Amino acid sequence: MLDENDREISLTFAKGLAVLLAFDARDRSITISEIAEKVKLNRAVARRLVRTLEQLGYVSCDRGRYELTPHVLRLSQGFIEGRGIPQIIQPILRNAAQEVGEAVSFAMLDETDAVYVAHAFIPARFTLNRVTIGTRVPLPPTAAGRAILAFLDAGRRGDILAGAEFAAHTDRTETDRARFEAALQEVRSRGFALTDSEYVSGVGSLAVPVFDPALNAVIGAVSIIFEHGRYSETELADIAARLKVCATHVASTF
């Protein structure tokens, strides 16, 4: 949350970032008026920000509608390369995917969401088009999210859950706070999270947490998705054990 009373921050810069974030899968091509309305800015201010981004090469214009350009990928380049995701983490996930026979993903905690930062795809295996690099998912109804939530400190977990409408994401009984906390306790006990049709109907997911060894704090989770009923409990336990090894290897890169 931005502290507008902090004299060391630039509100103009923050507004420019908000304009960039106005572009998403639903609003790929939008007008200045639509941007202004979406980010709650005066139209004249929005226009100056958009024109600045256009001159810097981050957006392009076609008949009054603006789109992001590939230039915006430079903003993530430092994170991707600095973490060694293509060179180090991707091969770790690929090895795990070959072992378990399913695509393996690595998602990291970002405020109140989990965002996928690496993915090892297995051809001809079950997958979802929605799982790509940069995909964001809510924490409560997903296995990756629960693997993270379960190991956050109680204060931060409470803050996230206080603002989460996890009942809106699932029609299962695990939507009231007490039962959800009990589910997270179970995740802590067995060391992995398991969901079934709670975020996407007919799709199960298994995830184990990834910890930053220096901070001894959870930073993300490695996970798989699979068709409902595909695995027995014994098979899932074996997959969880293999993913725990993968998570340890990913953690060693931080």
Report on this model:
This protein is of the alpha+beta class. It has 2 domains: 11-73, Arc Repressor Mutant, subunit A; 83-251, Beta-Lactamase. The protein is 41% helix and 20% strand. It has 9 helices and 8 strands. The strands form 2 sheets. The chain has a 6-stranded antiparallel β-sheet. A hairpin with a 2-residue loop joins strand 1 and strand 2. Helix 2 crosses helix 3 and helix 5 (85-100) runs antiparallel to helix 9. The longest helix has 19 residues, at 233-251.
Explain the layout of strands and helices.
Elements: H1 11-21, H2 32-38, H3 43-55, E1 59-62, E2 65-68, H4 74-82, H5 85-100, E3 104-110, E4 113-120, E5 136-138, H6 143-149, H7 154-162, H8 177-190, E6 193-196, E7 203-212, E8 217-227, H9 233-251
Hey, roughly how much beta strand do the residues contain?
A: 15-25%
Strand order of the largest sheet: 5-4-3-8-7-6
Radius of gyration, CA atoms, in whole angstroms: 20 Å
The total of helices stands at 9
CATH A-level architecture of the largest domain: 2-Layer Sandwich
Rounded mean pLDDT is 88
